[in-house]
Each structure stands twice: as C-alpha cells, then as structure tokens.
Amino acid sequence: TVWKDLPHRFRIDKEFVLQALRSNRALPPKSEFERSFPQSLRFDRDVVLAFTARSDFRELFNERHLYPPECLTKDKEVMMAYCTQIPRSLQECSEELCDDRDVVSAAIALDGLELQYASLRLQEDRDIVVQACQGDGKALEFCPPGPVRDGLVKDRNFMLSVLRQHGGPMLRLVPNNLKHDPELLLEALKHGMRFRYCPFEYQSDKAFLIKALAHRSELYIEFNPTTQQDVDLCKAAMVSESSTPLVHKRVLEISPQLIQERAVVLALCQRGEASLMKQVIIESEHAATFQDDEEIMLTAVQRNCKLFSYASARLKQNVAIIMAALDAESAADVLAAVGHEALRQAPQIVVRALQVYPRRHLRLLRTHIPADLWTTNREVCMAYIISAKRTLDVFEPQLQQDQQMALCVAAHAGADFGRVGEAFRNDLAFMTQAVELNGRVLRYASRELLRSEESLNLVVRAVANHPGALCTSAHAGGAASMMDFLRNEQANNQRFLPSVDSVLRHTEAKLELHQQFVQEFLRGICILTHDARYAPARRSPLRMLDRGVETSTALKQLIAEFLGVPIGREL
C-alpha cells in the first residue's frame, strides 16, 4: 500500500528502488513493483544483483519468475549469483560462461546435474566431474565417453560413492568385471537401478535377492512371475523396512497364507494400509492371537486408536497400549474401559488423558477418574489445572501446602489464585516466583506483604510480567493508557497496592543505581591493561579483578548483589 501511494518519480528512481531491495523487507506485489519499472531498470545490472542478494531470492524467483535478462547472461557476476541459488541457471548462461570453471563449479555445487549444461571441455574435466558426482551420482552420465570417464568407472571406490549418491543406474557404465561385483550391485539396486539390468546369475540368487529386498522392497514387483512365487522372497519383501502398501498388496495376492505369520502382520501394522491392518486385527482367522500380542497391538493402536477396543482383556491393562490409545476423541472411552483400579496404579494415564482431551468436555472426563486421585496425586491435579485453566474445590487442602501446585495455579489459573494458602500469599519469595509466572496474581498477595518495604520490588516484577498487574478490575487495555487507568483505580483498591507514583519513583531509582554502577563504579575499577609486564597494582585498583574474565565477572556480580544493583533478569 505504501509503495502504490508513492509519487511516480520515486518508484522509477534507481537509487530508491535499490534501497527498497537492500532493506530485505517484504516487497510490494509484482504488478506494483517490477512490472512498473521502465526497461532501463528492469534490465539494470545493479537492480538484478540487488534482487539476487536478498535472503528471500529463491522464493521471489519462484513467485515472480525472475529469470536473468538475456542482456546479462554474459555477465559473470550476475550469472554466478543465479547459479549458486537457482537450479538449471547454467543453461541460461552464454557459451563463454558455460566454459568458465568458476561458474560451472558454482552451479554443480548446487546441483550435480548442472554438468549437462557445461561446455564439452569441462564435461571432460576430471575434477569437475568428480565434484558433480559428489552432489548427484547420475551426473556421471554427462561425462562424454573417453579417457576421463573410462578412468573413473574403473575406480571401484569412486563408483561406490557415485552409486550411493542416487546414482544406481550408473552401474551400466562400469566395465564387465565390476558389473558382477555383489557390493556394487546391491548399492545400485538400493539407489534406483532397475532389476532387469542385474546380471542373470544374480536374478536367481535367493540370498542376494533377500539382501536386495531388505534395502528396497519395491524390487519385488520387478521380479519375474516364477521368482515372485518363492515364499521366502515374499516374506522378505513384506517385512523389509522399506516395504510399502503396494508391495504388501502384490505379495498377499501371490501368497495369502503369509497373513498368518506374526512378522508379516507386524509389518502391516507398521507400514501397511490402515484398512488392511484393521481387517487383519479384527477379521482374520488368527485375530484372537494378534489381539493378545503386545507388540502388534501397540503398533496398531499407535496408528489407529479405535483398535484399542479389540485388544485382549490382558492388553487393555497394559499401560503403554492405553497411553497410545488416548486422543481427543477416545480418551473418555478408554478410561471407562480401563477401570478405576488400573488408573490408581498408573495415574500417568489420567495425566495424559487430561492433556489430550478437549477443555470444553473435561467435565465428562472427570466422571471416569477415581475421586481419591484428586486428593492424593499432584500430577493429576496439575494436569487438570493446566488443561481446564481452573481449580476444583477438592484441591484447596493441597493448595494450602503444596508450593509447586500453587505455582501451577499462578501460571495457568490465575483467577483462582485466591484459593492458594495465606502462608504462601504472605511469603515474599513465593510471591516473587508467582508474579513472574503471572503478574495479575499480585492482587491476591496478603495485605501485610503489600504494605511491607519489599513490596515495591514485587510490584515491579509483576508489572514487568503483565502491564495490568496493578489493576483491581479485569481491565485489558494496552500499556499506553495503563498509567492513567491505574491512577483512576487508586480510589477503588483500598490502598492495599502501592501507588503508581511510588512504583515509578522506585523503578527510576533502581535504574539510576544501575547506571551509576556501570558508568562510574565499574569504569573506576576497570582493568587498564592486560600487559603482563605491568604489576597487578598498576593494572587495576582492585587486584582481585585482575585474575581472569571468569573471576572478575563473578566478583562484579557479588558487588552488584551486595549493593542491591539490578542486574540480569531483574534489570
């Protein structure tokens, strides 16, 4: 909006546009910004470089299609800026720059496949090819046949690194003796080589195929129909950590009897389609066995909480499975199914349920929680306070004695802080922690504490946490009008809280003390030099401050604390 309302002479002024680009702030829309440039600006070298220097240039390039102007494709600096950030920029470069080692090196550092746009001379440069293959192994394909490529493909270690950089198909470039190397073959199959390019003797080697499936189960789909019938290979494809729903479907079409095996069912629960997993757990012939298997049911419930209802009676008392079954929809039903006795033995279940259940429905959840947990377990009570943003009547005895629970009320249920014990609300150290969590609880401090000399420090901490800490009503105005509001409130707060003017005077005095400490005291005792040729007495008036940075810093902190100078968080 600001840019659109500017006079036209500013919007076409080069220096003004450059300042806007260099500010690194969000730019106006393309229709209002670069499209309104005259041609002299749109293709200006400095303006293009200013675009490329921005931290958000990649996003701008994609959104605004900021392709390099054709008149600048011979400019090395401009094209270097593009090649280091935008893939496929090398193809926009002139022939001279495509033959420039610096430009090509910058481009392939971003994406090894940029080698395809380099000049023939650099495509045959061993160092350039090696650098490109370090980014993407498939870049080796763009090295033309010749002495350089012949030398590289004969190097077994180099080819291993190429294959591991997504260069599996590059195995077809190696000499015949390396094409039969089992380690190279496994790496190639793992990183994208099609199974049909595997030597024939390995296509029927069961041990080799099992190893290959462990790395990449989708190879199973490329096996010939006879090989796919092998039960061991079917099972290897199913239990592979890389198995997918597509592989599961194909395997079970060929070997449906595998659905009875525990390892296969576990793989389905981990990586299979949710519908197939549910069918196996509920409807299969061996469903009862799987429903009583802890690992299988834990994995299944983690993916679908509703499957908890199908777990065996024994596993419905398993804490790990119960915890996995808790979510915003199922928590109440799970607690009802578990029973009070199990909840008493594992109160962490209740804590988790309170954390995930919607706040508006917590009243329903309370009916499934044993009443004695509200009076005996702090974690359960605190979980309720955090989730509900309020306390229960049954919490009051604990709020008289439990400091951590009282601080939890300050942080999450400030409106109920009046229920906290009088002893806590009369304790300066406790109230200091409380107002740092929620400045609004200052109003609940005891009258004796608010009338004491230490109350000003407490008030300062409270107001620093919340600008409305001194308000006696639920005023939610901003800090700009807060001081006038507070002065008007003085007639209603019965003078329990310090006056605003006294708080301001106290704060100003503290800040002045800090300024004197830093600018006058510390400057007067500062270490004049670290030159070891001078005696300590000549380096600093206080010799103990010349014992290293850690020692001097610690001593300065002690002096500040002794003098009551605000430092660190207090400042």
3D shape:
flat
Share of helix among residues?
55-70%
Number of helices: 41
Structure classification: mainly alpha
Largest sheet: none
What distinguishing features does this structure have?
0% strand, 41 helices, single chain, 571 residues, mainly alpha
Q: Can you walk me through this structure?
A:
By secondary structure, the chain is mainly alpha-helical. Helix content is 56%, strand content 0%. The protein contains 41 helices and no strands. Helix 28 packs parallel to helix 31. The model is unreliable at 474-495 (pLDDT under 50).
Topology of helices and strands:
Elements: H1 8-11, H2 14-22, H3 39-42, H4 45-52, H5 57-64, H6 76-83, H7 95-98, H8 101-110, H9 120-123, H10 126-135, H11 147-153, H12 156-164, H13 176-179, H14 182-190, H15 200-203, H16 206-215, H17 219-222, H18 225-228, H19 231-239, H20 245-254, H21 262-271, H22 274-283, H23 287-291, H24 294-303, H25 319-325, H26 331-338, H27 340-345, H28 348-356, H29 362-366, H30 373-376, H31 378-388, H32 396-399, H33 403-412, H34 422-425, H35 428-437, H36 447-451, H37 455-465, H38 482-489, H39 500-525, H40 536-539, H41 549-563
Helix pairs in contact: 2-4, 4-6, 6-8, 8-10, 12-14, 14-16, 16-19, 19-20, 21-24, 24-25, 28-31, 31-33, 33-35, 35-37, 37-39
